Amino acid sequence: MTDTIFALATAPGRAAVAIVRLSGPRAGSVLRRLSGGGSLPRKAVLRTLRGPGSDVVLDRALVIWFPGPDSYTGEDCAEFHVHGGAAVVDGLVKALLELGPRLAEPGEFTRRAFENGKLDLTQAEAVADLVDAETDAQRRQALAQLDGDLARRHAAWREVLVDALAVLEAAVDFPDEEVPETIAEEAGPALSRLTDELGGALADADRGERIRDGYRIALVGAPNAGKSSLLNALVGKDAAIVTPIPGTTRDVIEVPLTLGGFRVWLSDTAGVRDTADPVEAEGVRRARASASGAALRLWVVDGAFNGAWKEARGSVQTADICVISKADLVNGDDAGLARRWAEQNGLEVVEASVTGAPGLDALRGRLLARVTDALSGAEFPAATQARHRQALTEAQVHLDRAIEVLRSKAPVELAAEDVRLAARSLARISGRIDAEQVLDRVFARFCIGK
Question: What's the pLDDT at 181?
């Protein structure tokens, strides 16, 4: 990392203030060249910025000097707080390029922070999540992860693995020393407790990912059941086209919504029915796929119409919600049939009308309760991204195998290798593992070779 890099840290476009960040070994000399002198560390100073090789004034700006390693990236850094006009920013960018620094790649400042030990991978991910946060829940989760909650939880698990591996390595490498013959068995209970904790974390993994990416609710049902009208009523705008013509919706329409501080995605889908129309058939396929991937499905049944409604039942699951739509009209036979089937199969039933009267507020309340129950939790989730889930799954597989080796009295070397692989899986989440810690634990715990 010998390059000095810079980038606009604020959003492009006209603004009151724009911030350009600079990081690398030449940051100090570039700062002095542009501002005509040095600056006290972490003190904002008003300076006149001039381009290289001329007396042309670029701007009157605040400059801040962050000498490494006490900076965001761990390198020498500087910030220029200039007026946010396009001409000012362009002039500063050209001046920086003339002086040698290059434009930073996406995420390069945070990558340097990771490589210099200022952040681990989970904290680096949290920086991006915090920038993208649009709800209170996303903000809280990203801040907790940035503060190290996720890293500390995984580090505690890794401590257990390091201790267990120290015991197993002692049994393997020092069989003739003053080490009890049953020493390897000491690792078993700790590993069993840890695999139970990992199992609980994996069962809760959906929560962290859904807070980050959004809780998905799919509206499914027969053509003209009222799905698009219901979506528009729930989000409070005309997001989906509504006509009396069956099959108007051909594709999945996703609309964001915030419920209880959580991001929710409502998906309007094509009406599910058998059709020879290839375009509509593709819409039906996408509707079923959307329903399959959603956290919750609203099965919308036209309560005023005596027609085909059963085909969409294949897309719903136990604990979904059956919405009897058009509750302000006289119910037909479908309403009673759908209600009985839904209750028999563990679905909650709500009658609603998009005119705003019966049931719509009750439906909003049920959705709020479902989302809150699914995403709230007393403990910080152990996984907020798919790669976290994958690493935890791999670690649990290795631990289960290590425990089975110890129970079967197979060679301890096999268990040690699986514990080592489990530790590596956890280390991939944070991006670091220190193998020397294992050896340190061996000598700290046992009087070997005395």
Answer: 54
Q: Structure pTM?
A: 0.77
CB within 8 Å of 331: residues ≥ 6 apart: 303, 304, 324
* Residue 50 and residue 56 in contact, taking contact as beta carbons nearer than 8 Å: yes
Q: Classify 257 in phi/psi space as left (phi over 0), alpha (psi -120 to 50) or beta.
A: beta
Say if residues 58 and 51 touch (Cβ distance below 8 Å): yes
**Tokens encoding 159:** 């401590």
User: Distance between CA atoms of 397 and 131, rounded to whole angstroms?
Assistant: 34
Q: Which position has the token pair 């695999």?
A: 195
Nearest to 219 by CA among 259, 264, 252, 258: 252
How is residue 21 written in tokens?
């960040």
Higher pLDDT residue, 181 or 419? Answer: 419
Q: What string of DSSP letters covers 269-314?
A: -PPP---S-HHHHHHHHHHHHHHHH-SEEEEEEETT--S--GGGGG
Q: In which residue are the tokens 């301890």 written? A: 412
